[in-house]
TrEMBL record:
Keywords: Amino-acid biosynthesis, ATP-binding, Cysteine biosynthesis, Kinase, Nucleotide-binding, Transferase. It comes from Arachis duranensis (Wild peanut). This is Adenylyl-sulfate kinase. It is an enzyme of class 2 (transferase). Catalyzes the synthesis of activated sulfate.
Length: 216
């Protein structure tokens, strides 16, 4: 006797016979509640470029305007979810993939999800972009030259990398691929140094405002 499946199940990766469950409360309902639109603000740049500082400035400023944000910081996520990952290329890719998937969930929850990780490879960033609806992935390149990051060296890691005590350090003996096209580039002003973290945050917030992410 032939057994009919009651539901259309599928196989995804190594997960077999799985079924997607929908809920009547959807993203648009959550966005209505929060009076904002869920999206991913993806900060990328070298170690020491100011990603974490900008993420906090952005979160603070948006919070003050009554907007719900959440920061996924590479360093922090590596303390938990991604603690099994190293800094070799495959593990960095997996780090980025997982953070992209989590960011997708936060954006679907209606939050403005700010990610702050080096994310050195273009193809991995592009893959994360492809996870969310068109327009909802806002890639922000903090374009600070290596020599400036190295002079800042707040954790002393560049010094250790130069001394050969850390192998495969981004910018020293591991690649960083700058975005070929992204929504926002924050860079040094001609002869003026860098904008303050608050000024940078305002640039990103103006973009979000203009694109309608700060209303439902
Ligand atoms: N080998 C190597 N290369 C680069 N960075 C290193 C490395 N080892 C440790 N660290 C510290 O880890 C932080 C980067 O982690 P990320 O998760 O953002 O990196 S990645 O996106 O997976 O490339 C990075 O933090 P930030 O300075 O905040 O970027 C470093 O403090
Ligand atoms: N816009 C800025 N102008 C000058 N210094 C900055 C700026 N943003 C961050 N910094 C400083 O640069 C260093 C690295 O910043 P951090 O946010 O930790 O970078 P990342 O997260 O990219 O490693 C810190 O000492 C921080 O105070």
């Amino acid at each position: 006797m032939k057994t009919e499946l009651l539901f259309q199940v599928s196989n995804v990766g190594n997960s077999t016979n799985i079924l997607w469950h929908d809920c009547p409360i959807q993203k648009r309902d959550r966005q209505q509640l929060l009076q904002q639109r869920g999206c991913v603000v993806w900060l990328t740049g070298l170690s020491g470029s100011g990603k974490s500082t900008l993420a906090c400035a952005l979160s603070r400023s948006l919070h003050a305007r009554g907007k719900l944000t959440y920061i996924l910081d590479g360093d922090n996520v590596r303390h938990g979810l991604n603690r099994d990952l190293s800094f070799r290329a495959e593990d960095r890719s997996e780090n980025i993939r997982r953070i992209g998937e989590v960011a997708k969930l936060f954006a679907d929850a209606g939050l403005i999800c700010i990610t702050s990780l080096i994310s050195p490879y273009q193809k991995d960033r592009d893959a994360c972009r492809a996870l969310v609806p068109e327009g909802d992935f806002i890639e922000v390149f903090i374009d600070v030259p290596l020599h400036v990051c190295e002079a800042r060296d707040p954790k002393g890691l560049y010094k250790l990398a130069r001394a050969g005590k850390i192998k495969g350090f981004t910018g020293i003996d591991d690649p960083y691929e700058p975005p070929s096209s992204c929504e926002i580039v924050l860079q040094q002003q001609q002869g003026n140094g860098f904008k303050s973290p608050c000024e940078m945050a305002e640039i990103v917030i103006s973009y979000l405002e203009e694109k309608g992410y700060l209303r439902a």
